[in-house]
């Protein structure tokens, strides 16, 4: 029991580190930069399970709120959450446990069933980030619906789809390793 | 080669060691002061409170013996983004007040409201940026972890909740430079095997495919380090939820009380000035 809790704690910190570290890297493609943070948020739920995924995202948001520069581009603060893009950050709270719940990495499945489930999980969990993000952006900047969709949703769709594919591939590849990591403590 | 210097390119706030009044404050008080000053920035109208608040932050920087150029060196890349927000506001957002236009340009008009909004946007950004870099310059990660544990103690119905959160924050900030170093090593190794990192002449899909050989080894290495850390913690008799002592103690001193009183007085002064001073009548409030 003790070892299991320590493993969960360290894995939570590991996912939080990956989410925070990915905020420093952007892939400059065309006018819209692709940020890997959303991919790691979905992966934390898929690989760690709903509880660890939610804990990782909560810790990440708390660190950002108290002033550590872990938000996109090395920014920080409660201002980010109260600002126009705050809805996306709160969407992380929905995406990580949803990915963990839908994917359920503890279950064994055959390969033809594993890959489509990972793809669907990545797409749906990633879409959950935009569900509070877009209305929040609309309300914050007093935009109308066509303008907010044009500014906050349409340019990000290609990057979103490709990140979901990458998250699905990584989820399938890494699933057994993370499951073994978490289950090692239970054998003692 | 700049693409491979991942550790140097991290835009993290850098801690500057010092023995000043600001450095030696209680970490929980520093976090609380950060939150209160953040609220003050958002509560300040543009004239005259915002410049006075910026000046106050400059005074704090002087007390900590930090150069203003060092604190504001990261501002430049964000300025075009701020200008973009200002332009979006001018062209897309309907105006709330009916004022005389300063300038006509085809079908678009420049109003005093636009100028005041832009000034407020830039003023807020400069104040917040100075505040955050000041905070990270005078506070170590360990102090932030301890301060977070103290501040979150009232939230924990279970005894170990604040300590667990503090532990996760501490481990997270030990992991981040490790992950950055690991990513740097993996990037260089893959580049020496023929991977085209840093080349911007290919499409989005190919570029994303290049990051798979970076992310999978990064995950594996991170998981191995996590395994080592777990075994080391177990070997050192760490038990979750148990009462534990602390290597570094942060006692509350008279200087902390003085700083707290100063902070409360500052906030009350801002609150008072907000209601006493108004520009252009009571219905125009920027």
TrEMBL record, chain A:
The chain crosses the membrane at residues 33-50, 57-79, 85-103, 115-133, 153-172. One of its GO terms (cellular component) is plasma membrane. The keyword Transferase does not apply. It holds the Pfam family BioY. It is a multi-pass membrane protein. One of its GO terms (molecular function) is biotin transmembrane transporter activity. It is found in: Cell membrane. Its main location: membrane. The keyword Transcription does not apply. Signal peptide: none annotated. It comes from the Bacteria. Keywords: Cell membrane, Membrane, Transmembrane, Transmembrane helix, Transport. Belongs to the BioY family. This is Biotin transporter. It comes from Oceanispirochaeta crateris. The lineage of its organism: Bacteria, Pseudomonadati, Spirochaetota, Spirochaetia, Spirochaetales.
TrEMBL record, chain B:
Pfam families: CbiQ. InterPro entries: ABC/ECF_trnsptr_transmembrane. It is found in: Membrane. GO terms for cellular component: plasma membrane. Keywords: Membrane, Transmembrane, Transmembrane helix. The chain crosses the membrane at residues 21-43, 49-66, 78-97, 117-135, 259-277. Its main location: membrane. It is a multi-pass membrane protein. PANTHER family: PROTEIN ABCI12, CHLOROPLASTIC. This is Energy-coupling factor transporter transmembrane protein EcfT. It comes from Oceanispirochaeta crateris.
